[in-house]
Design brief:
By secondary structure, this protein is mainly alpha-helical. Strands 1-2-3 form a 3-stranded antiparallel beta sheet. The termini are far apart.
């Protein structure tokens, strides 16, 4: 018994098969035949966290201070100038308190709370956030020692 194939039909079937596999054309269903549908596994989106370094110029710091303390912006600009001259890296180890950042947040008195909150006093955003918290809780008392400078 000899089996013969129509080469044209075989070629068409092969092209169609490849087209379906590689999603070139949609699968056409023949009556009574259950198609096997191949779905590519969906990739889980990858979350990428990018930390952007902000150029903390004096002008940028003053703008952030004014935004953080809108009810008393000039006083807080003056405090930052007196405490650190707007330098985020300012550090004062006087009397073991290790004050740091633009508002000279004391590690001795606030170190534990800063750590619990995940804040770094040498990062401008964190220093402003904690200075705001101190102001809400204690008013201007945390900066009383530099009042002779900023209360002019």
């Amino acid at each position: 018994m000899k089996i013969t194939y129509d080469k044209g039909a075989v070629l068409i079937a092969l092209v169609y098969f490849l087209a379906v596999i590689f999603h070139w054309i949609p699968l056409v269903y023949a009556e009574g035949i259950q198609p096997v549908v191949y779905e590519r596994p969906k990739e889980k989106p990858v979350e990428v966290l990018i930390e952007v370094e902000i150029d903390w110029t004096k002008e940028r710091i003053i703008k952030e201070i004014r935004d953080t303390f809108p009810e008393n912006p000039n006083t807080f600009v003056n405090i930052a100038k007196c405490e650190s001259n707007f330098l985020p890296s300012a550090h004062n180890p006087t009397n073991g308190s290790h004050d740091g950042g633009i508002y000279q947040i004391s590690q001795k008195y606030h170190g534990k709370e800063l750590k619990e909150m995940g804040l770094d006093p040498y990062k401008v955003e964190d220093n402003l956030k904690f200075a705001r918290l101190l102001y809400e809780e204690q008013g201007l008392a945390p900066w009383v020692w530099s009042k002779h400078c900023w209360n002019k």
